[in-house]
Amino acid sequence: MRALETLLERRWILKSRDRELYYQIKDELGSVKKFLLEKLGYQVIVNPYLIKVEKIPARAESWMGILDFHHTIEYVFFCMALMFLEEKEAQEQFVLSELTEYIQAQYREEQIDWTVYSYRRHLIRVLKYCVNCGILNVDDGNEDSFAKDYGGEVLYENTGVSRYFMKNFTQDISSFDSPADFEREEWIDVNEDRGIVRRQRVYRQLLMTMGMYRDAETEEDFAYLRNQRNLLQGELSELLDCELQVYRTGAFLVLHEDCRMGRCFPEENTRSDIVLLLNDRIHEEIRQGRIEIGTEERICLPKEQFRGLLEQCREQYGGGFGKLWREMTTREFCQETISYMTELGLVEEDGEDVRISLVAGKIAGRYPADFEARRAGQAQEEEDEQ
């Protein structure tokens, strides 16, 4: 059993939904608890409901968030749902109208009118997320009735784990108004020992992001990484099937094939294929001297040039894409791909430019050499059948 991999991969392990895994992890927790606390600064919660590691990133990044949510108001509704459940006992039932009335009474920014479909759609997305992650159980009905009519009811059961979703803070956060405030709060208990803070930042960056990059803000952390790379490699490889690769301006924890820790790239979908093919095209542009790498090994392209590379990639390899991607307009294709790459931290939009992360240099792919011949043969077969 790979305890560390499982604990980092999942938000939590619920006894009610995976009893066997809950007890397996509980038995093996002693082998990784010290590593989580000392190297990452992560607290482990163990109670009759769940096992959870309080996973906090080294720094907030634009791609972090709940991927099921598409709008700011959904985060607001979710927080209000957690507040509502604070007053409920575990296994206590309630109907949807109780929650909708609570949100209407508490929301101050605007008047929530549940007859408006967009508000119902946002809340349904939140409720489905709560059910999927184990905060709620559906005892009767479903959200579709609420989608069709604001009077539609659903009977829910509070599982009791909602109070463990949010991190417990050591100070009042009501005055916080930026991610930086929360980052400072995270290190307040160990702030007197800069060595501990630096070590935990490095481990978090390696384990929780696509890569660690050297810049003015991370110079001190990167120096620690280079000096301690053998120690880090040894510790991490004992607990995970991985390899630490350190370069002049970046470092990456490369997971081997049998190690799945959270969301990994490449994924088994067309989007990942497109990104791999695009990265290979960027590599070729660099080899041909049409794209220059800056002194800090950074690549920054005008958006139009980046879109042009995407269009070339689609033109050359589009025959191998899924139907949905083949039928997209050029604009939709570019928007979807850039959005996906931004979501994974592979690119960052900066005004009229696109900054490409260093990790793009490590992950590229191409179709087999006979791809064009195979595609031509398939097209001929389809034509003959018609």
What does the model show?
By secondary structure, this protein is mainly α. It contains 16 helices and twelve strands. It has helices at residues 3-9, 19-28, 30-40, 72-86, 96-106, 117-132, 143-148, 179-186, 194-208, 219-227, 229-239, 270-287, 303-317, 323-326, 330-343, 371-385, and strands at residues 13-14, 44-46, 50-53, 93-95, 136-140, 155-158, 212-213, 242-246, 250-255, 299-302, 347-350, 353-356. The protein has a three-stranded antiparallel β-sheet. Strands 4-6-5 form a three-stranded antiparallel β-sheet. A three-stranded antiparallel β-sheet has the order 7-9-8. The chain is globular. The model has no long low-confidence stretch (mean pLDDT 88).
Could you give a short description of this structure?
With 386 residues, this protein is mainly α. It contains 16 helices and twelve strands.
